[in-house]
C-alpha cells in the first residue's frame, strides 16, 4: 500500500485520470474504457518515478459524477488534488464540498463541441464563484479558436490551464493568424498556463514537441506558466505509450534541469497550492 505521508514536493504530475468500468458513464460519451485505472495504480507510478504528488482530472466519460475521484482525494489528501467536471448550475454548497475534498478547478472538455456564451450572466456568475475559491478552469480545445473565447473566461478572474500543447495537429505556427492570436494572449501576461503534455495527442514526436515548446516559451518570455502531466493511463493510446515512456519523453523535452524543476515543482506548486514539506516540523 502506498503511504500518504507529507512528502517534500519532488515533482507533480498535473494530469492523470482514474476510473472503473463499472462506474456510470455519460450517454454522450465518445469513448468508454474496457479496463480499470485505479488511484493505487497511479500512486505506484508516481512512487516508481520519484514524483511525489499528482492532480487527478475527471475523465469526460464519467460526466459530472466526481464521486470516484473525490474518494481518492479524501483517501490521499496530502498527495492528490483534483479537477472536476461540473454543471454551471452547481450550488455553492456542492462547490464547497468539492473544495474541502481537494478539488482545485474544473475542466471544460470542448473537443468537437459548440462553444457556450461565456460572456453570459449565468456563466460569469459561475466562473466568479470559481475565482472566489481560487480554482482554475482547465480547457481542452484545439488551438484554432482559443483566442475567441478565452478572454471571456479570464474576465471572471479565474486562471486558465490549456491542455496538451493546445491540441494542435500541425504544430504551433506563428504565421497562422489564429495561432498568433493565442500566442498574443500568452504574451499579454494573462494568467494562462499550458500543459506541455501528451504530445502524442498532437501527432508530435520529440523534435516537433520541442519546436512547440520553443514557440510557447518565446510567447511567454519565460517558463513560469508551463505544467507537465503524464496523461495516464493514456486513454485510446494505451498501445502506443505508458507512464515510463511519458516520463522519458518529458526528460527529453526538458533537458535543462532548472526549467524541468520549474515545470515539475515550482509552477504547479504555485498554481495548485501544494505545500513543500516544512523541515522544521
Polypeptide structure, described:
The protein is an alpha/beta fold. The protein has a single domain, classed as TIM Barrel, CATH 3.20.20.140. Helices cover 37% and strands 13% of the residues. It has nine helices and eight strands. The protein has helices at 39-48, 67-75, 92-101, 121-132, 146-154, 177-187, 206-220, 243-253, 257-272; strands spanning 12-16, 53-57, 80-84, 103-109, 136-140, 159-162, 192-195, 226-227. The protein has an eight-stranded parallel β-sheet with strand order 1-2-3-4-5-6-7-8, sandwiched between helices. α6 (177-187) crosses α7. The longest helix has 16 residues, at 257-272. The mean pLDDT is 95.
Q: Give the N-to-C terminal Cα separation.
A: 25 Å
Given the structure, what is the number of helices?
9
Order of helices and strands: EHEHEHEHEHEHEHEHH
- Please state the average pLDDT score: 95
Structural class: alpha/beta
CATH architecture: Alpha-Beta Barrel
Radius of gyration from CA coordinates: 18 Å
**Number of beta-strand segments:** 8
Indicate the percent of residues in helices: 25-40%
Flag low-confidence runs.
none
The largest sheet is:
8 strands, parallel
Strand content: 5-15%
Shape: globular
Classify the oligomer: single chain
What's the CATH class label? Alpha Beta
Q: Write out the CATH superfamily name.
A: Metal-dependent hydrolases
- CATH fold category name: TIM Barrel
As laid out across the biggest beta sheet, the strand order is: 1-2-3-4-5-6-7-8
Q: How many structural domains in the coordinates?
A: 1
